[in-house]
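Homework help board

Subject: predicted structure for assignment chain

Our instructor gave us this sequence and asked us to write out the predicted structure in token form, then describe one feature. I got the tokens but I'm not sure how to describe them. Can anyone check?
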Amino acid sequence: MKLYGIPTCGSVRNARKFFKDNDIDLEFVDFKKTSVDCEKVDEWLEQMDMDVLFNNRGTKYKTLMLKELNLDDSGKREWLCKENMLFKRPIIEFNGKVVVGWDEEKYKEIFIK
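My token output:
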């Protein structure tokens, strides 16, 4: 299982704590140190809508002034390929599936058996 995010993100901290508290091992991938490429973006987009993956409320989105560009899904994909700070976080890969965002109840349903 892999968890993608940044250590300073509150949602990522909550997710990491959840997994630690439930003795679930995972590999942490820090977007600030390891970027994902277009291949990984496409892999994730096969399982979810762009609106789930693309963070249009974050600081990076605002500082890049992307709202003014009125991006379609193709444009958003291009930006995700080159700027990993535009992903909603955390992103969790497990058993060939992908979960995006922090939701403790959802995590309990999916990861606690």
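Reply (TA_rk): Your tokens look well-formed. For the description, you could write something like this. The chain has a mean pLDDT of 96. That's the kind of observation they're looking for.
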